[in-house]
Amino acid sequence: MSDTTAEARPKKEWHDVTAVALLSIVAVLTAWCGFESSKWGGEMSIAFSQASSNRVQASDARSSSRDAFQLDAMVFAQWLVAKENGDEELATFLEGIFSPQLKPAFAAWDGVTRTPFGLSEYVPAGTEEADEFTAKADAAYALALENNQRGDNYSLLTVMFALVLFLTAMSQRTGPEWAQRALLFVGIGVALVGVAILATFPIRI
Question: pTM of the prediction?
């Protein structure tokens, strides 16, 4: 056996051991990225469902608010007619059945403006609930988009690790020794970059 062959064998063994170790580690990381991408995809679906549910509830609350306003407007219109006709007894009765939302606005009404409904004191029943559900829907929708991006990030990282697997596999094929080493070192470099990026990603179990 020549000295050249004896020297080449340890180098070849080192290359093979490094390649196998890299392949094993990156295969696990690739599977982990796929798992995380799937988990964040599930979180995205949940958040979108929550956003949709809150939108529906906000719409229902808005509808209730419109109904409450129409009822208040009808009672107030009857009060105006009673006042116009000088029927103080009916006017007093109608004031007594004003909704809890109309009463503070009516108390703040100066009588100069046409109605108290434009005052800040008047908030129809259901308005606050609608605003609350809308805010929840917006927050859930924003979270869904964020979770979608997280899933996409893991998917892109999967592609990066797949590139490492390709480079490592190619480094074991027959060819110039310098080319094999170059492919292996490039694969290691890409893997290290991928691991550094992976360390910054949130984890969902």
Answer: 0.77
